[in-house]
Design brief:
Chain lengths: 113, 115
């Protein structure tokens, strides 16, 4: 089945630790996005990538890093510089025609121990 | 800068009532796109509808309908004869008409439909 998968579903981070959230899609979409959602709030853009080996910062990129080595994959690393990482992280993808819709994965909930 | 406002943070209705979720947006672009997404308790965002700025026709899909009015910068969503399964958080979003297609989300409206 075509879709977007995110793993793990839940992730625990210790102080000072880097953690990586996985996002994979088999929809042959060109663009991929990472959003952060805090409780009771809307989504905010962290990073996005329109093509392989290229990505741009979103509104809240500080403390995060990404890579786009393959079209299907767009992992997000939450670094120790991100002081308040507890949130729900959603990955999305879309074809790069202007009018195309972003489709979302099931999300990863990150908690700090 | 773009902005989306969903003034209703929470709405509670009884099953079979009609309910309208409000969305007001701000943008300086002449070409833009508006979206509604549903977020059930599982967390995944489910796409409901996309509208471009040149198409002000209202749309109906089953019990769902959308009213887009450029004159008031609003894109409201109505659920007719609500059901318990409609309980979720609903997000309105706005994107520019360019290749980046970054979405600006409203804060969301939590809809609770009671039996």
């Amino acid at each position: 089945d075509g879709g977007i998968t995110q793993s793990p579903k839940y992730l625990f981070r210790k102080e000072g630790q880097n953690v990586t959230l996985s996002c994979e899609q088999n929809l042959n979409h060109d663009a991929m996005y990472w959003y952060r959602q805090d409780p009771g709030q809307g989504l905010r853009l962290i990073y996005y990538s329109q093509i392989v080996n290229d990505f741009q910062k979103g509104d809240i990129a500080e403390g995060y890093s990404v890579s786009r080595e393959k079209k299907e994959s767009f992992p997000l690393t939450v670094t120790s510089a991100q002081k308040n990482p507890t949130a729900f992280y959603l990955c999305a993808s879309r074809k790069t025609a202007v009018q195309e819709t972003q489709y979302f994965g099931p999300g990863t909930r990150l908690l700090v121990l | 800068a773009q902005k989306v406002t969903q003034a209703q943070t929470e709405i509670s209705v009884v099953e079979k009532e009609d309910v309208t979720l409000d969305c007001v947006y701000e943008t300086r672009d002449t070409t833009y796109y508006l979206f509604w997404y549903k977020q059930p308790p599982s967390g995944e965002l489910v796409f409901l509808i996309r509208r471009n700025s040149f198409d002000e026709q209202n749309e109906i899909s089953g019990r769902y309908s959308w009213n887009f009015q450029k004159s008031t910068s609003s894109f409201n969503f109505t659920i007719t004869a609500s059901q318990v399964v409609d309980s979720a958080v609903y997000f309105c979003a706005l994107s520019k008409g360019n290749a980046g297609n970054m979405l600006t989300f409203g804060g969301g409206t939590r809809l609770m439909v009671k039996p």
